Amino acid sequence: MKTPYFRKVFLPALFLSVLVLAVSCKKTSTTTTTDTGTAPTVTTAGLIINLTSTTAQSGGTISDVGNSSITANGVCYSSTNKTPTITDSKTSETVSTSGTIPINFTSNITGLTAGTTYYLRAYASNSGGTAYGSVVQFTTSTGLGAVVTAVTTLAGNGTVGYADGTGLSAMFNNPSGIAADASGKIYVADTYNNRIRAVTAAGLTTTLAGTGVIGYADGSALAAEFYGPNGMAVDAQGNVYVADFGNNVIRKITAAGVASTLAGNGTAGFVNGTGTAATFNNPAGIAVDASGNVYVADHGNNAIRKITAAGVVTTLAGVKTAGYVNATGTAAAFDHPNGVAADAAGNVYVADQGNSAIRKITSAGVVTTIAGGPTQTDLINYPAGIALDAAGNIYIADEGGRIMECTTANVLYILAGTLNVSGFVNGTGTSALFNSPQAITVDANNNIYVADQNNNCIRKLTVTRTP
To answer: Class for domain 147-465, per CATH?
Structure first.
């Protein structure tokens, strides 16, 4: 896992098929059977990928082949039949002969009509019949439907160091956290410099807090000490929250420049309580809601913690043992969650890094999966950071080298970068390259900022959409 002062263990990345998805609820299959055996069980991918006016990507997962070999699989779709079958338009994918379950497949759909609603579901056939997944509905764009993302460098130059200044003259050392305030100022957890930096929209970088010395000291912000600061969040009053990873505490820096400890005591553990009575284990991502509640991706405890404005710490979801379980509260399981974001409705979204998944937690603690999963590492791969815009769209910093958007219409766009290709290149879309992007934030103007950790810089993404 990519964490300061600790060795990272990469999950193996599968070849790029950018598609299949374990959705949050169990998808039921419908089956057309014959008398010669048992049909397969198949689910439909819950997201449409890179949707345009005439093309889309989808796919499915075969979880049971039945009692005979798969003879055909793909997706079927129609603009008129709300429960499409293989007699409608369909794709036919290469049938896997590996014998490994589950079988994930990707379908590239072409020849769609602009501005049209389609109904789609996965299918799989064997001698026992044809099974179908649940129906997914999507609408193509009316025009070219292009999503073009321009990537530039806001601050930093790729060289490890510590320097305030404007644009490329500033230097960072493995930045791992980032947050934007209401004015558009960016706050950065400069992890290996053990400092908190501030970057204006014009790219002027200054130091907000920290001496650069590894330690644990509250007080005046510039005299405060941190140990590998990681996640960042900013509330409406301008208070900055820091997940102090190495110190196992959550810090707060007021707008007046005073650093204090909100929760935790410097000792690693998994204890709920108030203020310093609570303990954490390598807290990573952090978010704050409109009521002042702080949410923490407690990375080493495989849990999501909640801290009230009064400093009362509880466990919202998860249990110390790593796993992948959708359930409620401590019956759910995560695998080294690394990023969190909170919406206005009280939902919390989690970059569940070890599970290659994006999870959602309701205010009641009910956990579901929005995208990805342990068998779909080519989809989300290794999510490190997560952010929301005002409309509820989700943005993901995939440590594998990509920046992604999951829209409220359940469409996943690869905004920039290429899976498992590292570099430091500005440009558009997949021509731009990152090196272990760790954190992501969105400002009020929908500009996207990324803490590009191993490039030691802050990148800016500007998205242009044509309808």
So the answer is: mainly beta
